[in-house]
Amino acid sequence: MHMKLQSMKKMSFIAGLLFLLLSQSTFAQNTPTPVSSSDLKIFLTDTTFKAQPLKDEKLYHIFFAEDGKYRLLYPSNKTTATGKWSIDEKGVLCIQRVRRTGSNNKYMTKCGNVARVGQNTLHRYNDEGEHTVTLQFVGRGNKLPGGD
Fold it and tell me: Could you report the per-residue pLDDT of 34-74, keeping only the tens digit for each?
């Protein structure tokens, strides 16, 4: 009886350890991890993402071309936008967009850090460190819906 109790305690201990290890690995996969400048460039270049801004519900897709330009598509109303993207030596992603009003061009640039969450997800942050957009990997190349 004493041996059976010890065996049950060992099994319970092993099951507890296994649960702890599995839950930690799941937690680690969902914890934002900073991305280096070189890794971010590799991850973004020639890649399409589905983007979900946190403040509004306007889902869009974005393709980061090799030449430093991006193309954005809002599938809900088939609106597109283009601009430039860059990554500095600290791994800060900047996205520049032109707003045309009449004969004037107004350049808007948004910069912030990017962190990887799991295998296929990135979080974009604004310059104040707030998570603003979740980017979900769609595929390599231009995979915009109805894309070129």
Answer: 899 999 999 999 999 999 999 877 899 999 999 999 999 98
The single residue listed with the structure tokens 């992603």 is 93
Query: What stretches in the chain show pLDDT beneath 70?
Result: 1-30, 147-148
The verdict on pTM exceeding 0.85 is no
Residues 99 and 131 placed together within one structural domain of the fold: yes
CATH number at residue 49: 2.40.128.640
Domain that holds residue 22: 1-30
3-state SS record for 61-91: EEEECCCCEEEEEECCCCEEEEEEEEECCCC
Specify whether 65 is located in the same domain as 131.
Answer: yes
CB 131 within 8 A of CB 37: no
Provide the number of structural domains found in the chain.
Answer: 2
